[in-house]
Amino acid sequence: MEIKSTGFGVTKAGEEVTKYTLYNDHGASVSILNYGGIITDIMVPDKNGHVESVVLGMDSIEAYEEKSPYFGCIVGRIAGRISGASFDMDGTTYALAANNNGHALHGGLQGFDKVIWQCTEIMDGDAVSLSLNYLSKDGEEGFPGNLDVQVTYRFTNDNALEIFYKGTTDKKTIVNMTNHSYFNLAGNGKRDILGQVLMLDADKYGLVDSDIIPAGIADVAGTAFDFRTPKKVGQDLTNDEEQLTYAGGGYDHPFMLKDHDGVKASLYDAESGRYMDMFTDQKSVVVYACNQMEEGIPLSHGAITKPHLAVCLETQYYPDAINQSCFESQFLEPGETYEAYTMYRFSIK
Questions:
Q1: Are 203 and 220 in contact (CB under 8 A)?
Q2: Can you say how many angstroms the Cα of residue 22 is from the centroid of all Cα atoms in its chain?
Q3: Is 314 considered catalytic here?
Q4: Which of 267, 213, 208, 216 lies closest to 241, judged by CA?
């Protein structure tokens, strides 16, 4: 097992970008940038031993800065949308950048996806890790408190990518982080994900309005949102359901995961044989199926963007919880530690 680092260009602000590649002993690897903590590649074999990337990525820092819809990045301080780009806490209203139809999306204009992280390489026997640290200063993007965050990517010899999130603050604040990798198990983005089989261990999902703001909770039974029995991502996309229309012709919804230590979600591509299990301690996963992805943007490995080219499985606490009566708000106080964990494990079936 080893870690290699190479230059990946310079940002518009003149910051050096480095790509770290974590290799296990079986020819699989994960590549990560210090810019945004972006996962550029997860290289794993198919049933014939061909090693390809199962996430969408880009070939240059210029492309990430100019064209990326959050490919592979760390999202924070808050994943998803904060309605009205503001929230109230202890009698104070905090105004945030309204970067998405009057709402705050994925941390704001300069979220965790657009900053340089301090990286530390770690070798720990049966795995290789990269620890990323960033201090989000009090008032950054409108959020209170100096938030000291750490994200550790750990890649194991059994082709599992673990993500550990930690955060501490010196003022009461809110934090809800995720990773925004776009998965496509076909490899190298060679076809869309509508035929790939998804399972979600969730009896309920979050309704959204036309701005993708939470609007309540509903049972998945009898809807296009029932993935308790594995089914193709595209199987029910032609259903005439209002919720699919709100999200631009597909899924962009939180699913309320059952509380256990087992597999919470899985994805399978029969043609390649690649299979992915997802484990997490988070209460929800936002499933985004690239419903209206801009067409024609060049990606790594010769792929070209188009709708439904990938699916995101964004594990997190309930979105916009601070503003939604259907969810309990979650705060981080001085002296406490925010922690979250997700694992994506790759295999062959």
A1: yes
A2: 19
A3: yes
A4: 208
Residues (pLDDT < 70) of the chain are none
| 295 tagged catalytic | no
182 is in an annotated binding site: yes
Q: How deeply is 125 buried, as exposed, middle or buried, from its count of CB atoms within 10 A (0-12, 13-18, 19+)?
A: exposed
Rounded CA separation 110/116 (Å)? 11
181 assigned binding-site residue: yes
pLDDT tens digits along 161-194: 999 999 999 999 999 999 999 999 999 999 999 9
pTM here?
0.97
Q: What is the pLDDT of residue 240?
A: 87
pLDDT value of position 124: 87
- Distance between CA atoms of 337 and 106, rounded to whole angstroms? 21
d(CA 273, CA 108): 38
Residue 238 confidence (pLDDT): 86
Whether residue 66 contacts residue 12, with contact meaning beta carbons closer than 8 Å, is answered with no
User: Annotated binding residue at 252?
Assistant: yes
113 is in an annotated binding site: no
Nearest CA-CA partner of 189 in 69, 314, 52, 19 = 52
Catalytic residue among 180, 260, 271, 339: 180
DSSP 29-78: EEEEESBTT-EEEEEEE-TTS-EEESB---S-HHHHHHH-SSTT-EE-SB
Instruction: Name the strand (E) or helix (H) holding 253.
Output: strand 252-257
In this structure, which long-range contacts are made by residues 163-167, counting pairs with CB atoms below 8 Å and at least 24 apart in sequence?
Answer: 163/341, 163/342, 163/343, 164/339, 164/340, 164/341, 165/338, 165/339, 165/340, 165/341, 166/337, 166/338, 166/339, 167/332, 167/337, 167/338, 167/339
- What is 2-348's CATH number? 2.70.98.10
End-to-end CA distance of the chain: 25
Cβ pair 195, 232 in contact under 8 A: yes
